[in-house]
Amino acid sequence: MSIEDFRRYLVENHAAYEAWGKHIASEINAALIEQLGEGAAQLFIKVPPTPRVKGIESALGKVGRKGYNNPVQQMTDLVGVRFVVLLSEDIETICKIIQNNEQWIAVVSKDYQDEIEVNPKLFDYQSKHFEIRPKINSVISGVNITTDMCCEVQIRTLLQHAYAELVHDSVYKPVGPVPKKAERQIARSMALMETTDELFCNTMRLLCDTNKPRNDFLKELKDFYINKIGRQYLNQEDKINYCFLDEYRSFIQEDLLTNLIDLLDKKKYISYKIQQRATANLFFAQPVVIFTYWLAINEDSNKLQQEWPLPGYLNELRMILSDVGVSSGIGY
Questions:
Q1: d(Cα 108, Cα 153) in Å, to the nearest integer?
Q2: Which residues does the UniProt record annotate as the domain RelA/SpoT (predicted)?
Q3: Is the model's pLDDT at 13 over the cut of 90?
Q4: pTM to 2 decimals?
Q5: By C-alpha distance, which of 86, 182, 163, 165 is closest to 124?
Q6: Phi-psi label, residue 329: left if phi above 0, alpha if psi -120 to 50, beta otherwise
């Protein structure tokens, strides 16, 4: 393919490459939301994954530098999208989503973990890259997408992204000589970043292990709420539930869920009260509201109010105390 033919191809297919990149980003985002939930998925991705179509002059210049004779096949980054996550352990989540999608063929073109195994003494640019092509010709957003159209998807951590942003143009695509001292400084910074990521990952594992009983109980409590109160009444805010459960962590024992089940079986009006209020009152849309009823019956009301971890929902506690026939000592 001549340079002019390639230029013409790029002009004619700009919209197609843009549509292909957007489609891939959308599919990955949708799968991530399905897996984690919308709020958690938004927090999981640290930089918005915006597809970028390679500029015509940049693409033509690369052909000249690389000597490509079939640039449509050989140039894998005519459109690209980057997913930036917090930790190296998070990269695998995106990788699995890419590899499990049946719409495309995804080939790993760069894997920093393999490179570390081959050369463990080298501290250099780290990222995981996929070359993604559609399995069949298709129409997306009104344009034809052919099986030879490749989108490069990069997945990296925030630390890896900071490193790449700093050195990409200055070191990997230099406009002049790069001093050995500068290369050494860059290698040292990557070594520090790799160590930092490892410490972050270890810290997150410790936090996860410490909070596992609380988190597992919240999942069970959520399922119980859905089963007994109704999914349509649930509007879970994790911060509310975590704050509550951290205060009453000592009560989370093996028999607690059984006690809550027995409570709602014996006092059926509790489910009705929760349903009545859940739409208009956020606290009653939380799984921990069931736990609150149990505390209201089994714990001293004055102590509950004094140690209540959610001051904005103190009135809700008093409503619950009233429901179970316990005086709060304060009118409302």
A1: 9
A2: 51-178
A3: yes
A4: 0.74
A5: 163
A6: left
